[in-house]
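Run folding on both entries below.
>entry_1
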Amino acid sequence: MADHIKIRKAPGTWVVRAGGAVLGESANALELTEGDYRPAIYFPREDIGMAFLERTASSTKCPWKGTATYFTVSTAAGDLPDAAWSYENPTEGVAAIKDHISFYTDRVTVEQL
């Protein structure tokens, strides 16, 4: 793993909401910090209502984490394109985030309970 990336168990219980609906809640979330970026909370897939998410054709490549795939979050108020991402096959150094999903906090609400 790159020295500027740290992964730890996120303390407490975390929730993600969009359009008034709870998409997921987890006491097993991970916090990934990368350099000067704001920490990202990664939720285990089993703690997310995957019926709210639809994978898109979007992807990006990070030299330290691998290829990210993206998801549109569907809400009663409308769709939020590419509001969530996941590393389906992360690099060895960040293998802990496999089977986890993170969300853009400018599109959905992610908070510690």
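>entry_2
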Amino acid sequence: MNQPRTNQARTSRPASASLTERRKAATQLDIARAAAELFAEKGPDGTTAEEIAGRAGVALRTFYRYFRSKQDAVGPLLSSGGDRWRALLADAGPEADLGEALETAAVASLSTPGDTTEEGLRWTRGLLRAAQDDPALRAVWYRVNQESEERLLPVVTRLAGPGADPLEARLLAAAATDAIRVALEQWATTDAATTGAGSPAELVVRCLRELTGGLRLLTPEAGGDGARTSP
């Protein structure tokens, strides 16, 4: 008699955990947007953690449950583009040309039509501009990129194939991550639109080709499943 209830409880736990994680992520994003709004209005120095919590509609203790500082609170906004890029890249098949897959996924993550992508880019531009005068905010940006690189490495390693040099895979993950970082930083210094000339998508193509052009993993001579078949 008790066995069916036990099985039901066991099978419901993953769904409950998934719902909990989604709620946590949603709360973190609400806090991140509130922080970004206040930074835009008052600057990081003029903003307090209490104000961010109030704008997000959460208690101060909830704020500190998720974030160590007010600058740390914008991390989810700054990392969202990298999350999209890695997800798109992970969908590439093992037969895909690695260089083309990196470029296609990067461009798609930065230029997908829709309010979400454009909003994310606008937030990123404002935060990167604010970070010029705020070392703590710059540190968050660098940390987000470091974490993105670490998460990108296993994706690149899988797509490169079993014969790929681990050092080359690591260099590629680092170069690709820096290509997006530099493209966004350069774009943030301009008033270029989110699409078209001077956009993040256009700049990231140039940065990717400049930073990864000399890597053997992307040249025909490298061999293996991940090598490019054309210059």
